[in-house]
Amino acid sequence: MRRETRLPITPALSLPWSEIEFHATRSGGPGGQHVNTSSTRVELWWNPTRSGSLTAAERARLVDKFGHRLSEDGWLRIVASATRSQHRNREIAIERFQSVVAHALAVPKARKATRPTAAARARRLETKRQRGRLKQERRRRPDED
Question: What is the DSSP string of the chain?
Fold first, then answer.
């Protein structure tokens, strides 16, 4: 059925299709008889804690990032029910899954501590002086009473 045996996530990581489970259920919401009888909603299930394709560091990163989204057993669930086609919902779920996992695996670039430039410091101090002068001018002077 599939030509590829693995689902690409990032250039360095791909997952075997055998780790991913799909379940089709009936969509909710308003609709006629078609909605009530067709299982077009697709749930994609994947357990990162049991995946053999991940390194220990990747697994720990995913569990940390997905902590709130994982079930008690460690399963990640992606649901797609946007269209009336089960096939298209399946494609949407796969695309969303790839995006979510790739985003969670991305390691943020370390921030380098920088200092404000001399010109930026001078601008900040000049703005403070101007603000101080403005407030000084607003005060009532004793000779004006």
Answer: --S-SEEEEETTEEEEGGGEEEEEE---SS--HHHHH---EEEEEE-TTS-SSS-HHHHHHHHHHTTTTB-TTS-EEEEE-SSS-HHHHHHHHHHHHHHHHHHHHPPPPPPPP----HHHHHHHHHHHHHHHHHHHHHSPPGGG-
Percent of the chain with pLDDT over 70: 91
- Whether the per-residue pLDDT at 46 is higher than 50: the answer is yes
How far apart CA 75 and CA 48 sit, in angstroms, is 7
State the average pLDDT over residues 26-43: 76
Domain that holds residue 27: 6-105
Chain segment 65-99, per-residue pLDDT in tens = 888 888 888 899 999 988 888 899 999 999 999 99
Q: Tokens 């269209």 belong to which residue?
A: 83
Whether 145 is in a domain gets the answer no
Number of domains in the chain: 1
In the predicted structure, residue 35 carries a pLDDT above the cut 70: no
Rg (C-alpha) for the chain, rounded Å, is: 28
